[in-house]
Design a protein that fits this description.
Blueprint lengths: L1 H8 L3 E8 L14 E9 L1 E6 L18 H4 L4 E5 L4 E4 L4 E6 L5 E8 L4
Antiparallel strand pairs: 1-7, 2-5, 2-7, 3-4, 3-6
């Protein structure tokens, strides 16, 4: 799959699998320097997306530090992914995700890097 996507996108494609126990959060709010495709495999996970805080943070070339809630404002998308759901967000999108209190979460993140 990653090889096919690399040929389509003309850039490196990576994949990571994340298992999150029920009622926990994997990472603090942050943005990445990759395009992200989230594929929910098992359980459920709530995702919150936030707009960039400034024009300088739009389509960044490096990932951010961890943010506090007071630094990121209100979410622009708040959605619960279930098995079979797919979520895309571009680099620079501040995001955070929490497994629901009654179930674990297993998802795959496919990422595309910037063209060099």
């Amino acid at each position: 799959l990653t090889t096919t996507l690399q040929e389509m996108f003309g850039s490196f494609v990576g994949s990571n699998i994340y298992m999150t126990p029920a009622g926990t959060q994997g990472f603090a709010p942050h943005y990445d320097d990759i395009e992200a495709f989230i594929m929910q495999i098992e359980g459920k996970k709530q995702w919150k997306l936030y707009k960039p805080r400034s024009r300088q943070e739009m389509l960044p070339r490096v990932s951010s530090k961890n943010f506090s809630q007071s630094e990121i404002g209100e979410s622009i998308l708040d959605v619960v992914l279930e098995p079979g759901d797919l979520l895309y967000f571009p680099r620079g999108t501040i995001h955070q995700a929490n497994a629901l209190s009654d179930t674990h979460s297993l998802h795959i993140t496919l990422s595309t890097s910037q063209k060099n």
